[in-house]
Amino acid sequence: MRGLQFRLLAAILVAFTLIGCGSGGGGDSDGDLNLTGTWAARVTINSSTDGANPAGAQFLSTLTLSDVSNTVTGTFVTESGLGGTVRGQTVGNLFSFTLVEGVNSCPKSCTGSAEVSSSDREFEGTYTCSDECGTSLSTSFSAIKN
After folding, report:
1. How far apart are CA 120 and CA 110, in angstroms?
2. Which helix (H) or strand (E) holds 141?
3. Which of 37, 47, 78, 128 could connect to 11 by a Cys-Cys bridge, CB 3.0–4.6 Å?
4. What is the maximum span of the chain, computed from C-alpha positions, in angstroms?
5. In this structure, is the dihedral angle defined by the CA atoms of residues 41, 45, 46 and 47, taken in order, positive or negative?
């Protein structure tokens, strides 16, 4: 169960990261991103101490984001059904965020950042997570806007 939760959290982080960096339409005239929308993310585990998420394992996540005045909020859900909330900010073409897994006996908290590609519909980044049970997770991810 813990491995599935880490995957969900990782997926969510990837999704938010992708949303932050991959808004459609190139943002507004002052260069701000608009991450509002639904994003599909592929997350790759770089390292994990939980024993259930080996390095190199991948999972998918869907992010649903709202971006108002450079403040991003939303939700994520992984292909395994884990989910939670996303909160972050955009500055230039960078999206910094935190992810909190919704329901779990050892809630996970993640922090990460992503950079938007030149197409403004994709982004890539990394995030790290830890939980109250002492496990940690490091990931990289990429996302595209649906």
Report:
1. 24
2. strand 136-145
3. 78
4. 47
5. positive
The answer to whether the beta carbons of residues 12 and 63 sit under 8 Å apart is yes
Domain ranges across the chain: 2-145
Distance between CA 31 and CA 90 in Å, rounded?
11
CATH class given for the domain over 2-145: mainly beta
Lowest-pLDDT range of 29-38, 65-74, 100-109: 29-38
| AA identity, residue 17 | T
Lookup result for tokens 């859900």: 77
Task: Look up tokens 């991003």; give the residue.
Answer: 72
Structure tokens at 134: 């002492």
Beta carbons of 114 and 94 less than 8 angstroms apart: yes
